[in-house]
What does this fold into?
Amino acid sequence: MGAITRVPGTATRNARYAITLPRQSQDAGCSEPSDRAQALFQSTDTDGRLYPANPSIRYDGPIVAADGWYAIQRVASQTFVAHSVQALDDSPQVGAVVSIHHGHIIAPERQETRGMNKKRKPTP
It folds into this structure.
């Protein structure tokens, strides 16, 4: 299919491969949020940039605005993402701090603790 090619100078056991998908297919998703999501974001009177949410990425942060179409989540100091409410398994509440991944909304008290988020026991 031509999706991968061997990196020149590598062979047999040390072969490395690179993805060679056309640029067009990598940008097939929306790069800008819809006008409806942008209007909802502007009604929050916050400074920052709004991006469409990618369902395969986990986003953590508070919900700053929501309506029947979109939920706007703050993911960094001036970065927000717009989730389509139809793609979510539940309607998020404004002000709730949640984690959203693959359309599932997880409240902080239900999140598993592992990796860097794991709470450590104090050392004596």
Observations:
- Residues 24-29 have pLDDT under 50 and may be disordered.
- Helices lie at 23-26, 35-42.
- Residues 35-42 form the longest helix (8 residues).
- Residues 35 and 41 are 10 Å apart (CA to CA).
